[in-house]
Description:
Elements (H helix, E strand, L loop, with lengths): L14 E5 H17 L3 E2 L9 H9 L5 E3 L2 H9 L5 E3 L6 H11 L6 E4 L2 H11 L6 E6 L14 H10 L3 E8 L10 H25 L5 E4 L5 H4 L7 E2 L9 H4 L16 E9 L5 E4 L14 E2 L7 E5 L5 E5 L12 E5 L3 H5 L4 E6 L2 E7 L8
Parallel strand pairs: 1-16, 2-9, 3-4, 5-6, 6-7, 7-8, 8-9
Antiparallel strand pairs: 1-10, 10-11, 10-15, 11-14, 12-15, 13-14, 16-17
Amino acid sequence: MDPKGRSKWELDTPCLTIDLDLLDENLQIMQARVAAAGKALRPHAKTHKCSMLAKMQLAAGAVGICVAKISEAEALVAAGIEGVLITGAAATPAKAARLKSLLRKTRSLMAVVDHPAGVALLEKQLAGSGLRLDVLVDLDVGHHRTGVAPGKAMDLVNRVMAGRSLWLRGIQAYAGHVQHIPRYVDRRAASLKALKQAAAVFRELQRRDEGCTIFSASGTGTATTDLAVPELTELQAGSYALMDAQYMAIECEDGAECSDYRPALTLLTTVVGVGHGRQVTVDAGLKALYRDGGRPRVLNPEFPKLHYDWFGDEYGKFSAAGRGALLPELGQVLELVVSHCDPTVNLFDHFYITRSGKVVDIWPIDLRGRCQ
C-alpha cells in the first residue's frame, strides 16, 4: 500500500521519518547565518546519505556538498550534483583510479591530500590524461585521525605545486574532536585554538598563491563560533539538517541545551513486548539505532519519563523512571530522536517525508552502504 497521504503513525516500524518543515527551517537558519558572516556552506552528506536532500541544500544556497568516501561522490555525481568535495584522502592505486574515472564525469570535483605519497599516487594516476584535479591540503588540527601537521603543511604544498596534475585550491581543517564538547565555553575555546593553527597556514599559503581561496572547516557543534574566524571561507556542517540526541545535549551560548536546530529526523518504533515489570520491549534495537552517541529521546508528550536502552540486535526497551510514570501499551508507536544521525541513517533504505504528520514523499537513502 502506498503510504503517501497516510498518517505517519500508520507506517510499519522501525522506520525513519523527516519532518519537511523542520528540515527546511534548519537549512534556512544555517544558510542565513553563514551568508550573513560572508562565508559559504558546503554541507556534509555523510549525515543524510541522500542525493535528494543534498539537492535541497544546494537549492537553499550551498556552494557544494562534502562526502567522506569516493563511493558517495560517485552516487552524487551520478545524480547530477556538482561541487563535490571528498574529505578523505586517497591512499591506494584503486582509489586514485576511481578518482580519475569520476573526474571525467564532473566539472567540479575536489579531493584532499595529506601526505607526499598520496600526492605522488594521484600525479602518477593522472599523468598524461589531460585531467587536472582540484585539491585541498588536509590539516591535522588536533584530532590526529588524518591530515598533515600544520608545521609540515608547506612542505606538502610545495609537493603539490611541483606537479602538473593537481591544482591546489586551499586547505581543509576539520576539528571533529571538539564538536561534542558539552560546555559552550570549552567547545568555543578548543575550536578557535584548532582553527588558529589552520588560519596561519592559510595566510602563508595565500601569500604564496592568491589562487588558493578555500579554507574549509567547521561542523554543527562549532558553526556559530567558527564564523568569527576571518580566514575561514566555508563550513562543512552536516548534522544541523537532521539533528540527533548527541548534538541536542551540548550547551548553547546561553548555557541551555542546544536548540538552534530542531530534530527533523525521527525514528518510529512499536511496542512489541509488555508484562515484564516496569519496562516494555520495542522493535528498534542495534540494527535500527546506532549505539554510540547520545541517548535516544522519546518525543511522545504522554511519556516524558521513559528511558531507552538497547536490548539486542532487533529490540530495544523502555524503562519507566519513577513509580508514577506511564508505560505504553502493546502495539503503541513511539517517536524518538535518534542517538547519532549519521550511522543510524546508514541502517535504512529510505526516509518517509512528512508534513503535519502526513506522509508526502519517500526519499531513497541512495548513498547507504557506500563506505569505500
